[in-house]
Design brief:
alpha+beta, Cathepsin B, Chain A, 19% strand
Length: 331
């Protein structure tokens, strides 16, 4: 009997499970990843969601140098490793975190347990033979019945069944991805990358193909940057019905953007005249998020016009402000 739990910290970015996994590992590490963070996470993508019928807003970013990843396809796993539980434990013993897709129906911490067959993407970071559990991180049911990103003890057999019974077409990784924290990484702030990201954001595109962030949009045309506002504002779906997570991700993005501008000012890349505009953007995004959250708890009269107006304000301020930042960085 043995126990092995790889280190995890509190993620500073966790709008989706994948982001939570990456930043949980980074937060537990000893290296300063903030310069890398401020070189990335400007590009937003409006893409197809996990079930293929929905849309989500997610981050696109250049691969994380602090975490190596390697994929093992499902066919190889089942051919070489007849015992999935033992294989997962061996991976953990080699200091690998396991990122995979599972069917929520079989795992008791999910809201769809024994109800609906729905795919999701947790990460396994440890095991305990005495308890017979894996340590699984994902958005799962908390004690107050809300969904939170957290690490939960899950029986071996539940994880095994959830992985083995997942339909092939739902497995977006076609197997598992092994993450490993890399030590002695020197990753300074990348001004040139920020300039490219700014141009991409302003022109609603994504120039870089080698990224670590999960791509779910194989069969749809994704939208990027400023164009995302138009898609939401002009959507046939009312703001009352729109997924709250849209506005949650936007609020996180504006918070990261505000911190990026603060970083650029403090390190002498741009002047401090930009501070107030990005503070306004951040506050407006927080207001949108709070309006949407309150409406999801207790539906009110129409909030559509208020949210659309706030989104239009953010789009205009952001467009002008980011252009000015780019001009300064190019001097």
């Amino acid at each position: 009997m043995s126990i092995n739990i790889l280190p995890l910290g509190k993620p500073i970015v966790a709008p989706w499970s994948y982001n939570g996994h990456i930043f949980s590992i980074l937060s537990a590490g000893s290296q300063n990843y903030i310069p890398w963070l401020n070189s990335n996470f400007l590009t937003l993508e409006l893409a197809q969601g996990l079930n293929g019928d929905d849309t989500i807003i997610t981050f696109k970013y250049i691969s994380c140098p602090f975490i190596s990843d390697q994929k093992i396809n499902r066919k190889s796993i089942t051919y070489w490793h007849k015992d999935i539980i033992e294989f997962f434990k061996e991976c953990i013993d080699l200091n690998y975190y396991i990122y995979l897709f599972v069917d929520q129906f079989f795992i008791s911490c999910y809201p769809n347990y024994n109800k609906n067959h729905v795919a999701h993407d947790p990460m396994i970071s440890g095991y305990d033979d005495l308890k017979g559990v894996f340590f699984l991180s994902d958005f799962t049911l908390a004690e107050d019945s809300s969904l939170r990103y957290q690490t939960t003890e899950i029986p071996y057999n539940e994880v095994e069944q959830a992985y083995l019974n997942l339909p092939t077409e739902w497995d977006h990784s076609n197997g598992i991805t092994l993450f490993q924290y890399c030590n002695n990484v020197n990753e300074p702030f990348n001004k040139e990358l920020v300039k490219v990201e700014l141009k991409d954001y302003l022109n609603s595109r994504f120039s870089y193909k080698p990224y670590l962030s999960l791509s779910l949009s194989h069969n749809v045309k994704s939208k990027y940057g400023l164009e995302i506002y138009d898609s939401i504002i002009n959507s046939s779906i009312s703001m009352e019905e729109m997924d709250f997570r849209f506005f949650h991700v936007i609020e996180i993005h504006k918070s990261l953007m505000f911190n990026k501008i603060k970083f650029l000012i403090e390190n002498g890349y741009i002047s401090d005249k930009h501070h107030e505009n990005f503070k306004k953007i951040k506050l407006k995004s927080e207001l949108i998020r709070n309006i949407s959250l309150k409406n999801s708890i207790k539906p009110r009269d129409s909030i559509s016009s208020k949210i659309r107006n706030l989104l239009s304000d953010i789009q205009e301020i952001e467009k002008e402000s980011l252009r000015k930042v780019l001009l300064e960085l190019e001097r």
